[in-house]
Write a structure and sequence with these properties.
Elements (H helix, E strand, L loop, with lengths): L1 H28 L1 H10 L3 H15 L2 H14 L4 H14 L2 H10 L5 H17 L3 H29 L16 H22 L2 H14 L4 H22 L5 H35 L5 H20 L3 H11 L19 H28 L9 H15 L9 H24 L11 H26 L10 H28 L4 H28 L3
């Protein structure tokens, strides 16, 4: 009973330490985690490298994955770039296995871990900001070491009761018996990870058990395959009820694990005998850590060249069902202020593009009326207001604060544009030449607004679409001057008695609406490009 309690306590300390250490490292990294992933994932290959590096630093593949989901949802990364980061995170998370292999199961670290816990706890409680985050990371790391030492002690006791013969045999038996043994151990490894909700903890148990002599090297390899598959169960469960982006990345994660497992299983009769022969000169725990890393590296190496096809396959399995206007408003982006801001910015750009096309089409028709899609666009912009109000935490820098302010201005101008376009009475154009000139200028302004909005939607760069801004401003300013002159002429005609007051008011109001549409489109576009 005491052995079981010691093993369970060691696993619990390890999981707690990983949680505390990861939280501290994430706080210490701050916005750098997000910025690094966004800048370095230009290609799937560089994304895989930096995904592995960042995951190795923060010791959490879930942190990398959740940040990636937010960036992909907001449009800051393509789905293929996001997959590169997720693939790399699978390699980076194997670094903990090396820590266990090289330090954790070899020596008792209790004498070092306890003082580190004390120091880390003091820094966490008494420090602020980065000092507090450093204390949390240090205390968590010390808890991991203490957990590994406790786990080692528990496994030493378990080795007196458990032997490799107690587990299904892999080699030295018939083909079908060996295959059954491998599959049974894979299922056992999967169940361990699903139960612990941490493949790292499950692999720590496996490495400690092998070091204590409770399981053989070939049996440990089969367990690692199952444990690597099992880590996808938490992603699959987290995707239930989540956004389509989260579901796609979760599905891609599961498929990646399955592909890697199939490759490892196919190579199992070749790789395991090589490892057993190498165990004569290299200890088995180090070989298992290397096997775990190589397993994931091979999976990435196979899928990365096929990432475009793999992406299209996943997108076909889970097509986008949300409105094109609001597809960026993914709840996963709320955890990252920059991603949330970019999601709203792209929503505004799509709303401006939709309104611009609808208004220009209405003005160029023979009988101008209320533009189509205005109610739909207004609803989407309302969702954007609700979305940005839920973002967690303030912007990380003055630059982000300024960018968020510009985006909110653009959202406000787009909302005003939608309200004016949706006013009753439609877009009236009188028979006189001035009104037709005003209608043509407003239609031209809308076409320029569409080109700017489409450029902003296509690129995360703040200056995207700026080249057309001058032409849009020109149209809006000409329309403003035309409105003033037209108003003066009409009011003079009313005074002279040649035009009725009601008719003049209606015509002035129609011209006012055209000018307001162009001006709000111009201001919205200006804020979108950060001019």
């Amino acid at each position: 009973m005491s052995t079981t309690t010691t093993v369970l306590g060691g696993v619990g300390l390890f999981l707690l330490g990983m949680s505390v250490m990861t939280a501290g490292l994430k706080d210490l990294a701050g916005s750098k985690l997000r910025d690094t992933l966004r800048r370095m994932a230009a290609t799937p290959l560089s994304g895989a490298f930096w995904g592995a590096f960042v995951t190795l630093v923060v010791q959490s593949s879930s942190a990398t994955t959740m940040t990636t989901i937010g960036l992909v949802s907001a449009g800051l990364l393509t789905f293929a770039q996001g997959l590169g980061l997720v693939f790399g995170a699978n390699v980076g998370t194997t670094g903990t296995g090396w820590l266990i292999a090289l330090i954790g199961v070899r020596v008792s670290l209790t004498s070092f871990a306890l003082p580190l816990i004390f120091i880390g706890a003091l820094l966490k409680l008494l420090g602020r900001d980065r000092v507090s985050a450093s204390g949390g990371a240090l205390a968590g790391f010390a808890l991991v070491l203490l957990g590994l030492t406790t786990l080692q002690q528990g496994m030493s006791g378990a080795a007196e009761q458990l032997h490799p013969e107690d587990f299904p045999a892999v080699f030295g038996v018939g083909f079908w018996s060996g295959l059954w043994g491998v599959m049974a151990l894979i299922v056992l490894g999967l169940a361990m990870t699903a139960l612990m909700q941490s493949s790292t903890a499950a692999i720590a148990v496996t490495l400690a058990a092998h070091y204590a002599g409770a399981i053989a090297l070939d049996q440990a390899c089969a367990l690692i395959i199952g444990q690597n598959i099992g880590t996808a169960t938490s992603s699959a469960l987290a995707a239930i009820g989540a956004s389509s982006t989260a579901k796609r990345l979760a599905l891609a994660y599961v498929l990646f694990k399955l592909v890697a497992a199939v490759i490892a299983l196919a190579l199992f009769p070749l790789t395991t005998p090589l490892l057993m022969r190498a165990s004569g000169s290299v200890d088995g725990v180090t070989l298992l850590a290397a096997y775990h890393t190589a397993y994931n590296v091979i999976g990435v190496a196979v899928l990365l060249p096929l990432i475009d096809r793999f992406t299209r396959f996943v997108e076909r399995l889970l097509p986008e069902k949300r409105s094109p206007l609001t597809r960026s408003l993914d709840p996963a982006a709320l955890a990252t202020p920059l991603a949330a801001e970019e999601a709203v910015r792209r929503t505004v750009a799509r709303a401006l593009s939709t309104l611009g096309r609808s208004i220009s089409t209405a003005l160029e028709s023979s009988t101008p009326s209320v533009p189509q899609d205005t109610a739909h666009v207004g609803s989407a912009l309302g969702e954007a207001w609700d979305f940005i109000s839920e973002v967690s935490g303030p912007p990380a820098s003055d630059a982000e604060q300024a960018r968020l302010t510009e985006t909110l201005h653009a959202l406000d101008e787009a909302s005003r544009l939608a309200d004016i376009a949706d006013e009753k009475g439609g877009l009236r154009l009188d028979a006189d030449e001035t009104c037709h000139r005003a209608g043509a200028l407003c239609a031209e302004a809308m076409r320029h607004a569409v080109s700017i909005a489409d450029a902003v939607d296509a690129s995360p760069a703040a200056m995207a679409g700026r080249s057309a801004l001058g032409e849009l401003d020109r149209c809006a300013n000409e329309l403003r001057d035309l409105h003033r002159a037209h108003r003066t002429v009409l009011l003079g005609a009313v005074a002279a008695g040649t035009v009725g007051a009601e008719d003049a008011a209606s015509r002035i109001d129609a011209m006012r609406r055209l000018e307001a549409l162009a001006q709000h489109a111009s201001w919205c576009a200006r804020h979108l490009v950060g001019a």
